[in-house]
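Record 1 of the preview.
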Amino acid sequence: MTAWPSYGSAAWLQLPPEDPRTYAATLEAAEQYRRQDADPDLPPAEFCAEVYGDARALAARLLAATRRVRTAQEIRDARARPRPAHVLKATPGWPPIAVPGQPGRFLVHGQEKSA
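->
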């Protein structure tokens, strides 16, 4: 084993926990963090971007996707709004449609006006 994905990258997140590359990437990130503490000349922003860049981008994409999901209240509000009644329309080649509320009455293609 000579190569592994960077710690926190999308490829690293997809590795199974028992994969030795997961451990190697974690050790590499810990060593980089230790070196950053030992080297005050390295700006923290550059260090964080190098070590956590992919993870932060992935988290930002997941957060954006989560914000696009409708809340339960929004779904309830949408269901409470009245909608126009569905207009039955028979399709050629399909069987007749039973007309709701009128037992025994069917809508056949070409007879849409009678419903």
